[in-house]
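User: Could you check the structure of this?
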Amino acid sequence: MTAAIRMLDYGVSTDFTDEYIRIGETTTIKCLKKFVKAVVSIFSEEYLRSPNNNDIARLLAVGQHRGFPGMLGSIDCMHWKWKNCPSKWKGQYIGHTLDPTIILEIVVLYDLWIWHAFFELPRSHNDINVLEWSSVFSELAEGRAPLVNYSINGNNYSMGYYLVDGIYPSWAIFVKTIPAPQNRKIQHFASAQEAVRKDVERSFGVLQARFAIVCGPARFSHLETFKDIMMACIILHNMIVEDERHTYLGANDFDYDQINNNGPKPVSHNPTCNLMQFIKRDNSIRDRRIHSQLQADLVKHLWQLQGQS
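Assistant: Sure, the predicted structure tokens are below.
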């Protein structure tokens, strides 16, 4: 365990652990693989779970407090360089860089807890490709996710949304910034959206700072080992967040356990397997008209809430 944790935390090679605790290279690699598999198999059900009704109610309360009613978090992707990628696969994993990489998609909120992690796609991908393969919205499309009912400027909505950057499509569940804003209202909205969306960027930075193995180039040759290492690091990261959450709160923030939750509540509903209903839900997720309307309502809401002061 000492060798495995040192490799995760510091990203050191097996030779370094050999000099420190006097065990062989192959033994160290075997210890690391067994350690990460054990962490994933034992703790993934608790620390990689989807938000339940209580979690969503808390996320909505946080979003409303920050000026974004109906917000469930921020979503983005990062690339992990694969140093020892086999030569026969190298061309498949080269995308926006000259080096082979594997992509990770996560959803986070204010306290840096990672609610969703998707890290198992073969070949090279960008954020949009991963979105099409990811299961992050499958529960919503299949009718298994709690509905979120809220109102902004008199318009009612039934789906929570996520803050994203400009590469993502204009869907009803995404709120993007507005490039080159032309007036003070839009400038205020763009500034607020970009500031709150930094949660996911901070989460990537904290994850890589805590576990240097996912910051530097990966030295393994098997994709299954990659996935176990990444998922184990995310689980350990969430454990640390759970233990140190109270230290993340600033003077203008609040305690999660003392939220006066008067905001929108998730509404449970019975899942259905009807094909037409699935298509209808999927079309509502991708609705560009609702995306534009939601963005315009948030511009007005943020200006009324904070901009005039």
